[in-house]
Every structure is written in C-alpha cells, then in structure tokens.
Amino acid sequence: MMILMITCLITLDATVAAKSVHDAAAASQPIGAGMTPIIPGGTDRLPAYQLFVETDLPILSLGLVMALSRLVRTQPANCRPLCPRSELNPLDRLTAGYYDPGWSVVSDVAVLSLLGGAFIALWADEGVIAALNDLLVIFESALSGAAFASFATLTLQRPRPFMYSTAAPAEKRNGNDAAMSFVSGHSAVAFGLAVSTFITFARIHPGKTWPWVVLAATLSAAGVVALGRVLGGNHFISDVVTGGIVGASFGVLVPAVHQSPITVVPTVSSQSVSLTLMGTF
Amino acid sequence: MQQTSRSIFPSLSSVRRLVLLLGVGLGQVAGAAPTQPEAESTEAQIKQEQEVLKKREKRAQLTPITASVDDVTKPAFQLYVETDLPILGLTLVLQLGRLIKTQSAYCAPRCSAGDLNPIDRVTAGFYQPTWSLASDVAIFAVGGAAMALLMIDEGVWPAINDVVVIAESALAASAFAGLATLAVNRPRPFLYSDRAPLSVRNHPEGGLSFISGHSAVGFAIIVSTYIAMNRLHPKIGDPLPIISLAIGGAAMTFVTVGRVLGGNHFITDALAGVAIGTAFGILIPALHRAPVKVLPMASSQQVSITLLADF
Asked: Chain B closest CA to A278's CA: distance in Å?
C-alpha cells in the first residue's frame, strides 16, 4: 500500500487539506503491489468510507453469490406438507402455524424503506456522489448479512412456521422456499442497514447526538421487519432474533473494515505542533 | 502504515511508563527532586521496561518467509508463517468436505425439470463424459501453465513463493464452492434425463451442482497469476500481464463451457463459479503485500523515498 503523507499546519481546514492530498496523489507514480482506491470524482465532499477495488469487489461478488444461492435450491421441506409441532422448542411453538401474507408485504416494504431512506438521508447530507460511495458500504453490510443468512438457511433446512398448520396453500407448503426458516434474511438485512447507516452518520458528524436519533428510527423500522416476518408466518422468533444479531454484527464489521479517506495524525515535537494527513491512494 | 505509526508514537505504548514519567515530572515541579540513587534506579527501571516492550513488540511481529534476498523486485508476494499456514490448512481441510458426502441427490435417479429456472432448463439433461474429461485436462493445463510462466519469468524459488499465493486463491475458491455445493444440495444437470448411467445418477456427487468448483478454481488461478505478473512487470505498456490474462481467460472459458456441455453444471453454477474465482483471485493476493514497500516522504525541506522490507 502506498502511503502518502502531507504534513500541514494545524490551521489548515479539511477542504484545503483534502485537495492537497488529491493533487499529490495525482502526481504520484503507481506501485504494483498497492491497493487501487475508488475515489469518487465531481464532489468536494469527503465521504465517510474509502473504497478499494481489491476489497470491495470481492465483498460484493462473494456476497451476491452467497445471497442468491438460495434461489437455485429446488429441494422441498422434508416434513411437507405438514410438520409436527412437537419438534419445536416452547418459544417457537408459540408462533407455529402462523400465516399472513399481508405481514410479509409489510416486512418487504419496511426493508426497502430502510435502504431508500438511508440513501435519501445521505444524499441530503453529503450530496449524491459521496452518498453513493457510502451507500455501497451500507449495502455491503446488508448483503453480507443476507449472504450469511442464506448459507445458514440452506445448511440447516428448518421448516418455516407456516409448515405447522394448513393455513398456507398446499402449493406454498410443498415449494422449495418452505425449509428456509433459520436465519431470517430479512432481519439480517434490516439490522445490517440500521446499524451501518447509524455508523455512517456518526462518522460524518462526529460528536453530534442526532445520529443516535437515526439509530432509534432505523432500529424501529428493523423491529417492524422482524415482527412482520414472525406474524407473517415466515420465521420463528428465534430466527428473527438470530437474524438481528447477524445483521447488527455485519453492520458494525463491514464499516469497520473501511477506513476513512483521510487519517489525521497529530505530531508533537519540541519545535512545532502539526497535523499529518494520511491519504491512501 | 503500522510501521509509520510505530515510529511516530514509540513512547505511547506503556501506560505504566507514562504514569512513572508523570510522577517524576510532578515531583520535579513540586521541588521534591529525587536523590541521586533514586533517580538512577528510576532511569534503569524505565530502560528495563523499554527493553521488555521492545521484546514484546518483536514477539508480536509476523514471521516472514523469505524466498529471495538477491533481488528486491522478486517475488511478487510476501509470505508469513502466521497467515499463510492457517490459510493453507483451513482451505485444504474444507476441500475434504465433499469427499466424505455419502448421500445421493434428494431426487435421484431422475429429477423433474419443472423445478428449474428458464436459463437452467436449457441445459437440463445434458450428459457428455468427453467434455468433462476435456475440462479436467484443461484446468490442470491452466495450473501448470501458470507455474511454468512464473518460473520462466522470475526463477524457481520466487516462482514457488508466488505459486503458494496462487494456490491459496484456488484453494479458497474451491473451499467456498465446496461448502456451497454441500449447503445448496442442487442436483446436477445429468439427473434431469436418463442419458447418464444409473450408477452416476445415484452417486453422492450427483447433488453437488451449485457452485462449479472447476470454474471457481480456474478463474482464481488466472486472476491471481495476472496480479502476480502485474506486480512483477509494473511498467505501463508491458503486454505480458494482459497477454497471460487473455490466454488464461480463453482456456477458462473452454473449461466453463465444458462443464456445462458435459452435464456437470448448469449455466448459473458456472457463472457463480466465475464470480467466486475472480473474487478470491483478487482478494488473496491483496492480503499479501510486496516484499518491499516504497514509502515516499515529502516535507518543505526534502523529498525522499524509504524502502521497507522484512528479512
């Protein structure tokens, strides 16, 4: 990784410093073993995250394949068309047999609203280019959650709650989506979006309290998603709780592996006090 | 970056030492200067603690595997005992998962094509062992050619060093594909007709369609080889890296098509394999930095370049 250091006086404001770093980067020579940064052009605003071809492309690629792998499954549930309730733990027995397509639609809409809301809020806050840059990291958090959940559902093959009554149509109970209960992908995606959106705003506005309001709002929406999945008969309580944990974990982890475009290092010596701005190119 | 940070903050690593220094400083301000023997013992204590910290820092560093000290431009990747051994160990074990599977495909010996998506329905029922054999031969040729290319280009030992990283990319892609095939349990295309013999259709391998391991492994090899060649030939306009990628890409297209025509994989399995292989082909080399790091430093007085290397 090529590290470019530009020492600036403490009085330099962030915009001037960022411009100097960009100019110096343009003049520097590429090194074969370096990472390839994705630097959004056409904006003066610094996004919250630095993207790199070598890390973000594989995250997207692997995440997409893992998340979509559930679509190619053709095997139905082993206990179709009606599974015995006695197999279930007492907590999950409470919602066994639930089926309400209306709640499933509510949870679908709530997930899309979380993603759309995050984009609109970021767009309003930092402009469309920087918002798209940061939205990619938020999307990667959600995608990683979906990928993890997808692999878990395929491996564990737990029948969904609607398999425990005859409320759902026979076609649905005999379908290849009927044994994908544990972990809830919707909950993983929703909590991934909620937490990573909060982290993004907290990075853009350090020290401010209103990102916590964003967190409260996004967690509420994610809660509606989880509730909708249970009341719709798509997932048990244990599926959505674990899905929430998976999503929140990726919501913390994926932003954490994305450093800021500029790192500020204070340098103190007997002669001077300065700030070193480190940009990675 | 870590090395730069370490050099900037060499004295911030011990809270105990800071407290000690602060105590000495406050004592001096208050006029309660320590007596001569006390000051000497404090200094000796600080020195001793510094030594311990240095040793601890050294212990915490990774152990480099050095392939060539004669030429700093070779090899392309720096190997470390602490990262490369676990990558090799874990990915090798994960290869074995599919070998111990004993369960046939859930719908063996004949599955219904009505379950399939429209793209995959096109090749459902394909079975041609010659194409399978051709794809097996071609993938070994791709691996062998990558090794031969690096040996000719940089010599035996640096090439072996870099082949380890290429092998790690291939093994990681194969491990991922192996886990996916076991989790998804998708029947292979030859289970959708009666062309394949019953023994083949009832074999546990029959339920391992998604993702194509051949495509994943092959694309991981050609992409990581391209990255190695690109590092070894950083000069802009050097055609060798892109030629190696083009030839490898052509060979791997043949392998991927062979897997579909042979009835071993659906089109979506092969495409997912390409995506996985490319991803690991980029990711694993990115985790391995070059043996030599160039650090340009600019200040108002001077411009310099620092070379950092592990030996």
From this structure: 9
